[in-house]
Specification:
The chain is mainly alpha-helical and 366 residues long. The chain folds into two domains: 174 residues; 182 residues, Growth Hormone, Chain: A (Up-down Bundle), CATH 1.20.1250.20. Helix content is 86%, strand content 0%. It is globular.
Length: 366
């Protein structure tokens, strides 16, 4: 199920790259992306606190939610095929972003209900590896279909989401949401210093990720063969995510979760500042691999902190809440990159500064 969902998301990303970004001038692309990010970020500031509780109250539980979402996303792809060249695309993309967020929250919240506590980290690592592999594999066919037409690659996305919905029907029927209201003990545990620090570190990693993606996208447009370099950077990021998820268990045996988060922030600071000093495209690609790798390791470490430091909290509700916050942080980082559009080395220095400030804060508070 998750395999086909990731394939559909990859096909959608490839399909819209031409219509919303690559086929227009840099100034027009900047305006479009800024409008899209502003359009998507503001509503999510409101939706963040309501998505989790809404999913908890959904009749039929998580299983029905994921089934309905998959078929709804397939229908949305058909609508995008129809209105891809009109202003309606922005409204449709907002709906796509909301549905993608609801799916992400549902999947994260569902994990603790289908995997025992001891196996949660391993299961998250396996899903991370799967996502990396499928993103690489599905991107190829989608890119080839994109050469024919954006609508053809969107048709591939329709097929992927339909297959995901069919496979979701095989999920256990007992995956209901948690209807018990949040208790005072749960609120206390989720606001403990350890979880607050870990959440801050994870948010910093997501800000760096979102900033770097859009920074490279706009900076490389001005460079020779910029599109090819950007594709290479994304490929390196996917491979490094896959590698990080593969060694996550080994890293966790070597160091505690808080050490993983602190080391991740330090690495972002050092590699970001070093990339700024070098200032080359190669340095930016290396930085992309590092950001994606430490982001994956940081996510697994944060999940473990949340699980161990809040034993009395409802995990479904907690995972939904923090996953939404992390996504908001990533979008905010992208918004800053598109708004400022700094030169390559300056952007790398800003990423290094994000890592440095977050690392110092984490070390002092820890």
């Amino acid at each position: 199920m998750h395999t086909w969902t990731v394939a559909g998301e990859a096909a959608l990303a490839v399909s819209l790259a031409d219509s919303m970004f690559l086929s227009v001038s840099p100034d027009a692309a900047r305006s479009r992306v800024l409008a899209f990010l502003a359009f998507s970020l503001a509503p999510f500031l409101i939706l963040a606190r309501f998505i989790g509780p809404f999913l908890d109250r959904m009749p039929g539980g998580r299983r029905l939610t994921i089934v309905v979402l998959s078929f709804a996303r397939a229908g949305l792809m058909i609508a995008i095929m129809r209105w891809i060249d009109s202003l309606s695309l922005f409204a449709l993309m907002f709906i796509a972003l909301v549905l993608a967020k609801v799916y992400s929250v549902s999947r994260s919240a569902m994990m603790p209900t289908v995997v025992n506590a001891d196996g949660l980290m391993a299961a998250n690592g396996q899903i991370g590896r799967l996502t990396g592999i499928v993103g690489i594999v599905a991107g190829g066919p989608a890119a080839l279909l994109q050469l024919i037409s954006s609508r053809v690659s969107l048709g591939f996305a329709v097929v992927c989401f339909v297959l995901a919905g069919v496979l979701a029907l095989s999920l256990p029927r007992g995956l209901a949401g948690a209807r018990v209201p949040e208790s005072e003990l749960e609120r206390s545990e989720l606001h403990s210093p350890a979880i607050v620090r870990a959440a801050t570190a994870m948010a910093a990693l997501r800000v760096a990720n979102g900033f770097l993606f859009f920074h490279l996208a706009f900076w490389l447009r001005t460079e020779k063969a910029g599109t090819a370099w950007f594709a290479l950077a994304l490929a390196v990021g996917s491979v490094s995510t896959l590698a990080a998820n593969s060694v996550a268990g080994f890293v966790r045996r070597l160091m505690r979760e808080h050490v993983v988060l602190e080391v991740s922030l330090v690495v972002v600071a050092l590699v970001g500042l070093a990339s700024a000093y070098i200032g080359s495209i190669t340095a930016g690609i290396v930085l992309t691999g590092v950001i994606y790798a430490v982001g994956a390791l940081g996510k697994l470490a944060f999940d473990s902190v949340l699980q161990s430091r809040a034993p009395d909290a409802n995990r479904s509700r907690a995972f939904a809440r923090y996953e939404t916050r992390n996504q908001l942080a990533q979008v905010a980082g992208g918004f800053v990159a598109v708004g400022l559009t700094p030169s390559g080395p300056v952007g790398f220095a800003m990423i290094g500064a994000i890592g440095l400030v977050a690392a110092v804060y984490y070390a002092v508070r820890y």
